[in-house]
Write a structure and sequence with these properties.
Layout: H1 2-8, H2 11-20, E1 37-39, H3 52-64, H4 79-91, E2 98-100, H5 104-118, E3 124-128, H6 133-145, E4 151-155, H7 165-171, E5 176-182, H8 194-203, E6 207-211, E7 230-233, E8 248-251, H9 295-299, H10 302-311, H11 313-334, E9 341-342, E10 354-358, H12 362-370, E11 378-380, E12 382-384, E13 388-392, H13 400-415
Parallel strand pairs: 1-11, 3-4, 3-5, 5-6, 6-7
Antiparallel strand pairs: 2-8, 7-8, 9-10, 10-13, 12-13
Helix pairs in contact: 2-13, 4-10, 5-6, 11-13
Length: 430
Amino acid sequence: MERNMDKIYTIEHARMLDREDPLASYRAEFVIKDSSIVYLDGNSLGRLPEKTASYMESAIRKQWGERLIRSWNEGWYKQSARLGKKIAQILGAHPEEVIISDSTSVNLYKLAYGALKAKEGRADIISDDMNFPSDLYIMQGLVRQFGGQHALRLLKSPDGISSDLTELVRMVNHNTALVSLSHVAYKSSYLYDMERVTELAHMHDALILWDLSHSVGVVPVSLNRANVDLAVGCTYKYLNGGPGSPAFLYVKKELQERMENPIQGWFGEQNPFDFNLHYRESEGIRKFLTGTPPVISISGLEPALDMILKAGIGSIRQKSVAQGDYLLSLVQECLPGQGFRIGSPEFFEKRGSHISLKHAEGYRICKALIDPEIGRCVVIPDFREPNNIRLGISPLYTSYEDIFSAMEKLKLIIEEKLYEHYPGTRDQVT
């Protein structure tokens, strides 16, 4: 039995798993120039799809270079809504409920503002202390902007990994205007039960706003089935849209006319090219647009969206779970007694697609993982304060061999204390 177990923790076994992987062929659809680089940071910035460059080159050379201003009537004007419909398929939403617009933070501001206006007279905004700081900054700013009429109340995690839903039940009440949470927590990868939390908010007639940035494209989401009111998300992680690619927003159809967009701009006007001096908001989801869309950046989204739709979010999730469990088994087998703690939920039902490992020397370990002078590969994870090494699994291009190689290098670094060769001073971007 022990010999059979030993075979599991070998590179040959990892390669066998890759051969049996039904999604393995998608790896070739991404730009991977150097096979010695193990990229485990797709939860921050997804890899470049092979087809993206040609899509963007067409947008630049043909649509802009040749067609010039005529391209607005040849696709640019409807591009935000057209690709929003593809994202809607991934999110389990109606086509007319999702549109690409601005950044995640700007979209969060728009929808949170609209929610507070729609629930005027209610004071509380509920979030948690695991939420992405930018989301909390937006809410803090809204509290000031509304003259202190609201209070931001944070659900405290009992362990820095998960949330206590019993405490959330106690916090949400008749005074709650908005519950705003990340579907998957950015540090720990904790996955909220979307349907349960949404139902809780609605029991008290509060609105729910989900940030899907760490779940869209890798965790099945059904906004309509869960009866979600509002959602936002970025496109540069598992949607592989590229650095700074524009975000998306979702507003339930029944809410669209009730919700107010606080940043009124010409693309949210009924007919921008009337150049009317008095704003008349568009009907439906277009009312949440503001300024001119970044058409070149939006053009880069389509190849990855098409891949995700073709592969199927169910299959992507199935591989994500299998690879997450495989990674955790390697940690338990190869790194016992080395100062590591699992910083993510143990059970996949409560976990997104990245694994967080906690270690007192987490930052210096990350620096050693990236160093090409150590081991036979470069491993690119990321670090989140104070001690989290995040290992992102992107099933369309992450291989089992990638995961094995990363754990092999991590074991070498720990056993020989190679991290001690690096300073603890932080880079500007971690």
